[in-house]
Amino acid sequence: MRRTAIPAGTAEALLLLSERRGLSERPGLSEGQGLSPDTLLLAAYVRVLAAVTGDSSVVTGYLPEDSPEKSPLPLWAALSQGSWAELVTEVAQLADEVGRHAPQALDELRAETGRTEPLFDTVLVAGRAPGPEDLTDGTVLAAGLARSGDRLELVLSHRPDALDGEQADRFAGYLLAALRELAERPGADHQEWSPVPEREVAQQLAEFAGPRRELPDRRVHELFEDQVRLRPDDIAAVHGTESWTYRELNERANRVAHALRRGGLHDEDVVAVVTERNLPWLVAVLAVFKAGGVYLPVEPHFPADRISGMLVRADCRRVLTERDASPGLTEALAGLPAVRADHLDTLLAEHHPVTDPGIPVAAGQSAYIYFTSGSTGAPKGAVCEHAGFLNHLLAKIDDLEITEGRVVAQTAPQCFDISLWQLVAALAVGGRTLIIGQPDILDTARFIETLDTGGVEVLQAVPSYLEVVLTELERSPRALPRLRHVSATGEALKKELVERWFATFPDVALVNAYGLTETSDDTNHEVMRRVPEQASVPLGKPVANVRIHVVDERLRLVPLGSPGEILFSGVCVGRGYVNDEERTRAAFMPDPLLPGERMYRSGDFGRWLPDGRLEFLGRRDAQVKIRGFRIEIGEVENQLLRVDGVRDSAVVVTGEGESRQLVAFHSGEELSDATLLESLGAALPSYMIPSRFRRLDVLPLTANGKIDRKALTRLAGQEESAGDGVELRTGTERRLAELWSQVLKVPAGRIGRASHFFDSGGTSLSMLRLAIALDRVVTPVELQQHPVLAECAALLDRRAAEAPNPGRQPVDSHV
Q1: Which of 523, 640, 746, 754 could form a disulfide with 515 if both were Cys (CB 3.0 to 4.6 A apart)?
Q2: Rg of the chain (C-alpha set)
Q3: What ranges in 696-788 are assigned the alpha helix state H?
Q4: pLDDT computed for residue 458 by the predictor
């Protein structure tokens, strides 16, 4: 129980309002309004609840004074724009309605609505102070007034296990501030009011910011050059059977850098690198930085339209590539005569100096551009500077304990921003980069063997891939004695996976990393050496020199622990989107709380935990992440609309975790899936292509004329459970269908003989899980080659017949 005296001035003003005296001095309240202090408190109460929950629609329990019912009834309040006086009027009407319906018992209301869970978790009691008896049926907080003459006292009763004393005191402070504002400025817009006091603003800005750190006046490539002088003959990078020393790597990068400058490259000119993930890729990246250029990674497997769009948007005139590396690049360059492409082997064979170019590169110069999915149909190129790049790299080096001699695995695709720190972090401190090829990544057993034989000490992967690795290790245990730190990023990290991780690797730290391409990659690290106590895995505290604001729709700081949009400020924030002023203005802006700093609106929602760690709550827009790739639904829909014959389009997401997939609906002409796949495949990377297409005569609409995405999501789910109509015939087919159901997390009835693994939502990760579940009777490559269930079952039967014990059933396994 917490009792707080309402300051005399505020109490007097509230009593004057309730007694309809002094109203001529209180604009917005009419002479006819009879308002009790409890009604004024109720108005303040719902306004504070809206602020702390981040939701303008509030449900609270309300027990009217002298009510014949012992239990409070729910009061729904939808807060709209208006003055405090108007809010009081609305709330008074709502309270009156609750009073008229009081004879209806709460259990009857639940039965009528079909809800068994508590309808509210807060209560306001009228006419008296609340007590422990009001904390029933899931209620964690009850509020009310105690009155003695002209003295008013705010009384809160709360459950300490759900709301601690500090949180209750803060809530009381918010309520008192709201009452003071209502009493003193009843005509003011209540939406303009914020409950966060100055001391809490100061706490969020100072205590919850990343530690201050003076950055060295060095660029990342210069840190590498320092290591070259210290250890020229140490191994710097390895890929497959090939390895280069620091000297060899540096001399190759220097040759290419000199070639770029002699070829007319100027500071901050964009250079696209189109190679596979190999040692020449590393040479090209370092060369671009050394030459003062801006690195633009381009996947060699991207379609020509995608590559062309990236080069044009970035105003890129130079490309570094390998021979026959990218058919899409060849096609794109045919339509871009101003773009010059150089083969790395040609530049390395030319007689360019092997010495460091020594070109001055300022901390504020652009370092790289990474393209992410864009809602308008065109990808966005996020530009980040060298200072932000260096700040992030040093955070990784510190928190993952990357030191001299440490081996860091490079696993991420080039278009993924995390690929860059994986590539160069070890080189900045005298360690070694091990580039793990895609074939090894797609075969979990080979991947684990590579980690072991390569002596990997630092690894980063998306959680869904870590889950596959753990599944393989649970079936075929293998020690990884050199492994020290593993970072999970790109997807939400679930507590269940953390529990499995520490059960397998109790001495290997697991780091939950969070950040965005626009903020120079990861901004938060939660370094875990044991399973966290709370239900979800926190994002951690900001790294050095990073400031994070959690704000409401008006960009004001929200109360501690309340949900809001996550904004970033400081050296981590990039310049914006290349040659895209409109989308840059929408997301990048000056920080109103920290003059002189840039701020970025992430679109992510989160909240502060009491100890200053951040918790992720979701997205505010149509952006999703599938297998770690950030996808704007709008970009896929816009590309679908460009297909001849498509009139309207909508894309929804089905499934959970690694089984999430895109399902596209369209109206217009009858078009085959092959036609749609071909059209989208010419413009979008494979991870953005929907798994299924469905034509409708007309897309369903909501009452306000918008496409009804909820209806489409339900329809997609119904189709998932419908099956392909082809009955399973053999025991192997039935057992394989059961495994598909477990691996793909889809109803077994949906799977038939003609079902296609990847059309059913399969991914490279779920394919790996299937191979493990089959005890590796077949390889992942063979599964790729036999994606139809009947074909795969026939392959398994052949393998069983070839085995020494032909009676063995290869699919008698589990996931």
Answers
A1: 523
A2: 31
A3: 709-720, 731-744, 764-773, 780-785
A4: 98
Region 238-255: mean pLDDT is: 98
Of the ranges 99-113, 385-399, 548-562, which one carries the lowest mean pLDDT score? 99-113
Encoded tokens for 442 = 């797609």
Q: Which residues pair with 156 in a beta bridge?
A: 2, 143
Report CA torsion sign: 567, 573, 579, 585.
positive
Q: Are 681 and 303 a contacting pair, CB within 8 Å?
A: yes
Strand order in the sheet with 646-654: 646-654, 661-668, 692-695
What are the phi and psi torsion angles at 51 (to 5°)?
A: -70, -45
541-542/521-528 β-pairing: antiparallel
Asked if 771 and 711 touch (Cβ cutoff 8 Å), the reply is no
The DSSP element (H or E) to which 452 belongs, if any, is helix 444-453
CA dihedral 348, 353, 359, 365 (to 10 degrees): 0
Q: How far is CA 517 from CA 168, 370, 416, in A?
A: 38, 7, 9
String of DSSP letters for 456-500: --EEEE-HHHHHHHHHHHHHS----TT--EEEE-SSPPPHHHHHH
Judge contact between 178 and 48, C-beta under 8 A: yes
Those residues whose C-beta lies under 8 Å from the C-beta of residue 60, and which sit 6 or more positions away, are 45, 46, 49, 74, 75, 77, 120, 122, 123, 124
Rounded to 10°, the helix 246-262/220-230 angle is 140
746 to each of 160, 353, 463, 559, 710, how far by Cα in Å?
A: 42, 59, 20, 41, 19
pLDDT at 115 over 70: no
Run of H or E residues at 589: strand 588-590
Q: What are phi and psi of 184, to 5 degrees?
A: -90, -30
Tell me how long the chain is.
815
Q: To which residue do tokens 């803060």 refer? A: 170
pLDDT at 74: 87
Q: pLDDT (tens digit, 9 = 90+) per residue, 414-446?
A: 999 999 999 999 999 999 999 999 999 989 999
Torsions phi, psi for 461 (to 5 deg) = -155, 160
Say if CB 740 and CB 786 are below 8 A apart: no
pLDDT of residue 422: 98
Tell me how far apart the terminal alpha carbons of the chain are, to the nearest angstrom. Answer: 51
Q: Rounded to whole angstroms, what are the CA distances from 459 to 380, 468, 493?
A: 28, 15, 15
Which among 525, 488, 517 is positioned nearest to 420, based on CA atoms? 517
Tokens representing 767? 């394919």
CA geometry: angle 117, 121, 122, nearest 5 deg: 150
The CB density around residue 534, as the number of other CB atoms within 10 Å, is 10
CB 274 within 8 A of CB 323: no
**Tokens describing residue 407:** 């081996």
Please provide the average confidence, as pLDDT, over all residues in the chain: 87
Half-sphere exposure of 806 toward its Cβ, with a 13 Å CA cutoff?
Answer: 4
Alpha-carbon torsion angle 335, 339, 344, 346, nearest 10: 90
Please report which helix (H) or strand (E) contains residue 663, including its range.
Answer: strand 661-668
CA separation for the pair 419, 275 (Å, rounded): 13
Tokens of 466: 């870590």
CA distance 320 to 748: 48
Using CA atoms, how far apart are residues 389 and 177, in angstroms rounded to an integer? Answer: 43
In the predicted structure, residue 151 carries a pLDDT above the cut 50: yes
pLDDT of 287 > 90? The answer is yes
CA dist 631 → 301, 516, 617, 620 (Å): 18, 13, 18, 14
- Rounded Cα distance between 458 and 487, Å, is 8
Write out pLDDT tens, residues 608-623. 998 899 988 776 655 5
For residues 476 and 445, the answer to whether their CB atoms sit within 8 Å is yes
- Asked whether the predicted pLDDT for residue 628 surpasses 70, the reply is no
